Amino acid sequence: MEGWGSPTFLGLEESEDGPWDVLVLQVPLELSVSYGEGTENGPRACIEASSQVELFDEFLMSDLPGGYRIRTAEPWSSDAPYLREQLDSVREYLGGWFERGGFPLVLGGEHGILLPIVEAIESHELVSDISELTIVQIDAHADLRDELNGERFSHGTVIRRCLEAGVGGVIQIGVRAYSSEEKYLIESEDRIETWFGRDLLSVSGDSTVWGEMISSLSDISGPVWISFDVDGLDGSLVPSTGTPVPGGLSHWGAVEIIESVFSSDKCNVIGADVNEIVPDSEGTLTQFSAAMIATKIVACKIADLGGGKT
Ligand SMILES: [Mn+2]
Question: Which site from 31, 139, 174, 232 is most exposed, i.e. has the minimal number of CB atoms within 10 Å?
Answer without folding.
Answer: 31
